[in-house]
Write a structure and sequence with these properties.
The protein is of the alpha/beta class. The protein is built from 15 helices and ten strands. The strands form three sheets. The protein has a six-stranded mixed β-sheet with strand order 2-1-5-6-10-9, with helices on both faces. A two-stranded antiparallel sheet has the order 3-4. A two-stranded parallel ribbon has the order 7-8. Helix 2 links the parallel strand 1 and strand 2.
């Protein structure tokens, strides 16, 4: 914890002195930009909070775009940005948003981490969108807290910062004064959530209409995950067990089977698995089975009963229950909405029937 301002370290938000909290208003938002970050993710909070939309019933925010490093900042496609503020902008903001970070394996600059700690200590809420969660974690602001990030990077976040309670299923996580979100679109979801907190549902709904996005999306990231083994864990001894599970989802095995294959006790396996992937083993397995069902619903005409069998569910009822819990809709509705290409077998039959 940095002590550059001479303030004593303090405890929970409720214990922070009013003299510190009063200097920072939530409607003053600092967006912290880094070099080599994707331009789309970096621009999301600027687009949401940096435009005056009072004519549409959206309260105005004061936006401070801050460079975390000496500029100009180079972004996607070689586009260069010049931010009007430096880290000093964080000293005035009641909300600090880190919209992106370019490398999960790199540690952000120490002055940036110190500035984030100070802002948080003085009462600012701190927000990490997508890869920005890694910056918050490096500052220690996610220790012993629930958090999320893009599902592809969740294993890396869990492995690099074991004190963080990573939940890769959520679109965003609100833990009061520290908030995190998943990928690009989820960054918009969380920004709308901030408006909803600050000014109510009417204001958030008005902003959503102006942005032409849903005011609130149901479900989490499960609808967007894939079955590939994350690169960050491919060298871990548990990777072999995880690969075996992914290749044998049609079998009705449980977590005890996976622990045995890993030559571990159930308790040790649970702890190691969570630290590696960010998920409890049972939740991870159920998520993978639902993902397999999603792909079959998208690409085949198989009945739900057969899909349940091929995905390792004990019954169609079990599949429907877990599917609805993870995605918010039943399998039949998902098939209607998300079928992406011609079902397997149809093209072959059509070809065979041609003269």
């Amino acid at each position: 914890m940095a002590e550059d301002d001479g303030a004593d370290e303090v405890g929970t938000y409720a214990e922070w002195p009013a003299r510190l909290i009063g200097r920072r208003r939530a409607e003053t938002i600092a967006v912290l930009l880094f070099s080599n970050s994707p331009i789309l993710e970096s621009s999301i909070p600027i687009s949401v909070f940096g435009v005056d939309r009072r004519d549409a019933g959206v309260p105005n925010y004061r936006l401070l775009v801050c460079a975390a490093e000496p500029g100009p900042l180079r972004t996607t496609g070689g586009v260069e940005l010049i931010a009007p503020h430096g880290l000093d902008g964080l000293h005035r903001a009641g909300t600090v948003i880190v919209p992106a970070w370019h490398s999960p394996s790199r540690t952000p600059p120490a002055p940036v981490l110190d500035a984030l700690r100070r802002a948080h200590r003085e009462g600012a809420r701190v927000v990490g969108l997508c890869g920005g969660a890694f910056v918050l974690a490096a500052a220690g602001l996610l220790d012993d807290r629930p958090a999320t990030t893009h599902w592809m990077y969740a294993p890396a976040l869990a492995k690099s910062f074991p004190k963080v309670r990573v939940d890769p299923r959520e679109l965003y996580v609100d833990d009061g004064d520290v908030l995190t979100s998943a990928g690009t679109a989820a960054g918009i979801d969380l920004c709308l959530h901030l408006v909803r907190i600050d000014h109510g549902s009417d204001a958030a709904n008005a902003l959503a209409r102006r942005l032409v996005v849903p005011a609130h999306r149901v479900g989490g990231q499960a609808a967007y995950m894939d079955l590939s083994l994350p690169e960050e864990i491919s060298g871990d001894p548990l990777a072999t067990v995880i690969s075996w599970a992914l290749e044998n989802l049609s079998e009705k095995f449980d977590i005890e089977v996976l622990a045995t294959r890993a030559y571990m006790s159930r308790r040790t396996f649970d702890r190691r698995f969570r630290s590696l992937t960010g998920s409890a083993p049972l939740q991870w397995l159920l998520t993978q089975r639902v993902l397999q069902a999603q792909r079959m619903l998208e690409t085949t005409e198989l009945q739900v009963e057969e899909i349940a069998r091929r995905c390792g569910f004990r019954s169609p009822v079990a599949l429907r229950g877990h599917f609805r819990k993870q995605l918010g809709i039943p399998p039949a509705a998902y098939r209607d909405a998300f079928r992406t290409r011609e079902p397997e077998g149809v093209a072959v039959e059509a070809e065979a029937g041609r003269p």
